[in-house]
Amino acid sequence: MSKDLKIKRFPRVFPARSLSAIEHKNDFDDFEDWEPYAQLIEKQDYPGLVRYCKKRAEQRPDDLYAQYNLGHAYVLNGEYGNAIEFMSDHHRKHPWIGDYQYVILDALFGLGKDEGDFNWVEKPVVLRLSENILNACYEFLKPKRKPRSVSDLYIEFVIKGYLLFTEEDLYDALSNHEKFIVENPCEDKHLAKVKVARKKGTDRKILKPL
Length: 210
Fold this sequence. Notes:
Blueprint: H1 31-43, H2 46-59, H3 64-76, H4 80-93, H5 98-110, E1 126-127, H6 131-141, E2 148-149, H7 150-158, E3 162-163, H8 167-175, E4 180-183, E5 193-196
């Protein structure tokens, strides 16, 4: 995959949209099926992964996971055009599945394009690091008494769309913004603690009597 892509790999967690929310047999129910796939991923043998996933996709044309795995394998192997061509039909058949949308997005950005360069049946949400993202972080942290990690903040956005920024990007943006105080004692950016920079006498929580 292109090193220029800043894509954080998370399980797809779109309620009622992801493959995990669909009731059907998992492509890798048996350990014997999962083991070779995992080994190919671990070895970064992406050409071998494409061959393996292609065979399984052909054997199981109705298995949604098998089709996704092949599209994802194409992306990992840098075959962005093949990924888009293969996933296009599946996206048209199942436009609500976020996993299929994300394979296409991975491939588009790998080709130096963006989400506007594809004819979507259902257009995905793409989130770029912006002032709106930082404002959302502020609103999330403002009522909190304890600081939260950068990872905690990042995950809040993972469930909302396809992210074009990493945890490290978010850390850098928060660190350079006057609304936030970022503590990073362990030099691990995603574990850094973040809180809002409160002014004296403001934003104090008033406790109501019991």
